[in-house]
């Protein structure tokens, strides 16, 4: 048939009909290789236009609606598909215009069969060599029962990868009870309706070709949206269509949710929205974070676009300003480019409508860059004729979120600022709270198998060490600061890092490689606390690998140039690795590289499914802990678990970091703008500046004055600040910083502006850097020169599963107080500090502490009754007596081994404990003229 409604009759033989059908189907999916869909799904056969499918009509387009109605959606039950004599049949197949698009296997739990049985049937019976099940022939294959649904886009026998297609229930897997029917009836009542299915075909289902830039090798994969992706994008589009431009949306989607695809589907459909025959949105701006792989989102969007040149990657600020002023439909960029593009923007876009999609909202939309972006898009940036009052008003407007833009913020870990800025407000008990517009939780992602639970196998390593005094005197130090320095000294010591490197290499070979994790492909990451420690680990792990004659190598990743142990020349990670940092992700996939040692780099945004084990030697907290450990959670065929070995954190601290993001994250209340008045009053109390100072400095600054005109006023204020008492300096500077921080946030969301606050914010931003922090003498200086490491050992605790509270979490709003103070030094002698430190980090966590304590109290008396020891005390010198004491102690330990193997093991394996017990026994028993030692009466019980 020809384009539109004209028909051309073509007579074909039966063999030609078969060939045409094959060519038509190949053609349909061939289109998907290049673009989403054309105006019609069509092609030429013998110079005849073939129309396979008419797309969904736009509003008020009667002709398109008439054509769409010509599509024939049909269902066939018990479809026989096998060409052999087995007469295998499929429960259901959906056709559009005679072409198969969806297959189904249906099960009923009342007959003791479920989706798992349907999946097994697909794997066993549906041979991908059969025409119906060959790759790219059908769009999707569904396994369905009365409670759950699974789907697969590529049947490959036992290697077929079926994924859940469920709504989710109680923020987890499965489907909610349905008062109107089966729990899975949404599949045919919603998803498989004609309009919805057509939209999926046109806008979501896709064949994507990835090309390796180095080898040119192509990898083809077929994409079908997961339920939460489809529901999220459709809900957002529906809300924008109904409510227009200007709203804010927060999407809390867990890692592993397929965020790049969700953003791509949203972006390319936002530009198609129309109202009254005109586009609702002129340009979609996708703002990514430089720290993540922004290229992934850019390429994903391009693969979904019908016309690829509608997507512009603004790599430089000039390209960004040009793309905005030219009204490009989709612009992908980073937030940092807006300040540089600002001076180059004109006013021609002032009346345009924007959609701003923010990837990783907590880092991609904050502070000055966000205000610059809003100011740029508002069209207020290019008027050089503004007076200072106009500029103040423009800056206030620049802080505000645009009314001519809708914001779509994606994140897995929303902070309080993010929730209040982009979340949906609701009332609860008279309090205004905020929640995400759409949620796909970490809990659901784990239960559905899209990500793995990184807390399921968590092992902490306790470090026990003893420091000794290396100076004769007993100087005084600040105890709190000294403890921190001592801990850092021990954990960063070459000897201790060498010990931990040995544990890491042994564990990796014996628990990861030997057990064939991820089919023998598993990788590991070592997270270090600093670049010097990272480099130390690099050499230590290399040494341990060489000891084992290991076939594997490590990669190190850190930024900049650094000296190893002060040696020249400085080294970079690229020099140590032998290839550029940009190639680290690619090289890490290839043997012999199996272990990646990092300092900050690759702790966020690094997506490597083969990463199985993480060795943590860095204190982690809050979102940083979640993002770092989540590098492990990517699902992969054959990846059944993950493992964390942690030298630096306690399980309860990791639990506290993860719990706010396990289910829906809610902001408990909104920030009170009246707190700004309190902060202004707190600053006014110290009279460091006055209103004239603020106005003078701000007017000079906005007028482009040089430093020599600004500094005299600021310096005069600084002099007044320095005359304050130390505590008052702390109060003033803390209040000033709190004002700048809080106003910078509230200025974006308050419905009104305050010119005085805007001026004060500008003034304080200029003044604060000039205010010296109250000097705190470091009364722990020199302690590291007075100590040395006497003993060190590690002990692994039992692997545990860290359980998270199964409830929505509320987080507090942005703090508006200052809360700053100076710690009063707690001075102690070095000997006391070392004793406390050794008690804190050298104690042994006994399983049967009471029994051990009882026997330790009895041991001196048992040793003192040894005849040879008694004779040595009477007739020999102290050194000989000590030798006999140690011999007798060993015999006692062996005698009581049957009663307390734990005590024996510590004596044998722990040098510091052995020395302590030996000293204790000798000090209590020596010089008693050979008489047996008797413990004091009060300790006998």
From TrEMBL:
Domain Helicase ATP-binding: 240-432
Matches recorded under PROSITE patterns: HELICASE_ATP_BIND_1
BP GO terms, sorted: DNA restriction-modification system
Gene Ontology MF terms: ATP binding; DNA binding; helicase activity; type I site-specific deoxyribonuclease activity
InterPro entries referenced in this protein's UniProt entry, alphabetically: Helicase_ATP-bd, HsdR_RecA-like_helicase_dom_2, P-loop_NTPase, Restrct_endonuc_type1_HsdR_N, SWI2_SNF2
Alphabetized UniProt keyword annotations: ATP-binding, Helicase, Hydrolase, Nucleotide-binding
Pfam families: HSDR_N, SWI2_SNF2, T1R_D3-like
PANTHER family referenced in this protein's UniProt entry, alphabetically: HELICASE SUPERFAMILY 1 AND 2 DOMAIN-CONTAINING PROTEIN
Protein name as annotated: DEAD/DEAH box helicase
